[in-house]
Amino acid sequence: MKKIIVLVMVMVLTTVIFTACAQEDKVVLNVYNWGDYIDEDIFEMFEEETGIEINYETYATNEEMYTKIKKGGTRYDLAIPSEYMIEKMIREEMLEKIDLSKIPNFKNIDEDFKNLSFDPDNTYSVPYFWGTVGIIYNTELIEEPINSWDVLWDEKYAGQFTMMDSQRDSIMVALKKLGYSMNTKNLDELEEAKQLLIEQKPMVLAYVGDNVKDMLISGEAAMAVVWSGEASAVIQEYDEFEYVLPVEGSNLWFDNIVIPKGAENIDAAHQFIDFLCRPDIGFLNADYVGYSTVNTETLKLIDPELMGTTYAYPLDEWIENYEIFNDPGDFILEYDRIWTEVKAN
Amino acid sequence: MLKRIASGPYLVWIVLFILIPILMIGFFSMVRTDAETGAYYLTATNFARVFEPVYIAVWTRSIKIALEATAICLLLGYPMAMILAKMNSRYRTIAVMLFVVPMWMNFLLRTYAWMTILGKNGILNKILMFFGLPQMTFLYSEGAVLLGMVYNFLPFMVLPIYTVLSKMDQSLIEAAEDLGGNKVNVFRKVIFPLSLPGVVSGTSMVFMPAVSTFVISNLLYGGQYMLIGNLIEQQFLVVNDWFFGSAISIILMILILVTMAVMNRLSGNNPEEGGVNLW
């Protein structure tokens, strides 16, 4: 009998201790972001200024983020999806409205990036970075100049390049090579793209996510399909790399900051968004991640040498025919199926 | 009375983290949601899709490589276990420790370590180049995945066999020798049959994680090589089709249960004597 009493007491005690620990006064902001997509030093600066602590988690694809927020029972206060995913999340009522009056630094955002079609009045999202998708290659290993997606189907380069382990981006490459829209809802076009990707698969070294930079730098891969900022980060450190914008067209993308429904610290989230829009913080982030800023004040601080480069601030005429992803609605199931079949083959 | 209370937390654990999830997977595998209303309806399409040719290829690939890994582990592990069992007890503890110590390190880290060994400019290629040999591709191949499986799961084969061998009644072996059995016959007719429970438990402990792994294939074959584990992971994390993912998981569970049943039958159904029969 004594033993039972002891056991019960121990259990009660542990419960009390655990619940007590959980109730702290400090506001903790749960930020969910792409890997390597913020200068983590700014978290400390933010905490010093506001007393709000940042709890930081990362994802590798829009789809991963979406699934976790949709199904995971998580409570993130902030996330940074791309345009087509924001469109989908707005449609599915997964986002909180953003009160722009609480974000004075919103005035710094370039008009070009405001009021885009996926979120017309910036009701749900504030621009963070923009960029393109292209090919980065090591000029020491690949001698001919490159300007087209065709090289990714060239036997010569078999086993030397990586594709993205991200379904819409990889299907986009095949669709663009075929001359179709990357937002196609035509099943025949999609099947053609699938055949092309299956044909390419034996030549692909690997389908990769965040580790692509390491693979390029270590010489494991000579060429890779990447987001422009990854190219920027590599090229600024290593002279032998070059980034090209394929002539067939590619993806022009925007990542915006959103507040998912279920967020518990909406005020703190607004404070952090405003903080991210501040010119100096924007510069620290742009400098660290290598992507192109949406902030006019930050742009003034950026090294002028980056203007007119393919990877950072390309000229308008280079990306004229570039497309922006939109949310295909339920047709996404077909994209899911195509990608599953490509990977399973 | 105390026993019953003490088992309480474990029961709660089982219900919360084993029973309920399995029931949920079972439920999801048999339904889909209506696109319009979002309501669930019963359907067999999830299971039907599992048997489409594309996915059958994934199944055969997974089972084949898991069997290969298990066979290699057995071929390497059995002699190793015999050596261990026969060792002087002073060195034996150290040798067993050498098997166990790497397992203290995280499984992911150990697999990552192989990437730096096998890479194009990795340690192995550096050695080859030092001897003037041409650079070779080790990483991102089926061989790399197989190596990763054998490396990670070998201890699971060695340890159960070693336990059985070291507990074996030596007088039986002596008797066989006294009766004129040569080394081969003693092994074939006495030692090996007696060690079967260890072999069976080792085999299932290697086969099961090998057939369901997704990390090893992801890291060492760079997302090129889809095994059943990768397919399930993709359905849950990337394409968000929990229904199809659940159907595959159910089939995988059935496959594993059948394997277990077959293996148990093979071992002669006497778990008490075996001592290490985990299943």
Strand content of chain B: under 5%
Classified by CATH, the class of the largest domain in chain A is Alpha Beta
The CATH superfamily of the largest domain in chain B appears as: MetI-like
Number of domains of chain A: 2
Q: What is the C-level CATH assignment of the largest domain in chain B?
A: Mainly Alpha
What kind of sheet is the major sheet of chain A?
7 strands, mixed
CATH topology of the largest domain in chain B: MetI-like fold
Largest interface: A-B, 32 and 31 residues
Q: Per the principal axes of the C-alpha atoms, what is the gross shape of chain A? A: globular
Extract low-pLDDT stretches of chain A: none
Query: SSE order of chain B in H/E notation?
Result: HHEEHHHHHHHHHHHH
Strand content of chain A: 15-25%
* Sheet having the most strands of chain B: 2 strands, antiparallel
Supply the number of helical segments of chain B. Answer: 14
Mean pLDDT of chain A: 90
Q: Can you name the CATH architecture of the largest domain in chain B?
A: Orthogonal Bundle
Gap between N and C termini of chain A: 63 Å
Attribute tags:
heterodimer; A: 345 residues; alpha/beta; D-Maltodextrin-Binding Protein, domain 2; 2 domains; seven-stranded mixed β-sheet; three-stranded parallel β-sheet; 12 helices; 10 strands; 38% helix; globular; B: 279 residues; mainly alpha; MetI-like fold; two-stranded antiparallel sheet; 14 helices; 2 strands; 2% strand; disordered C terminus
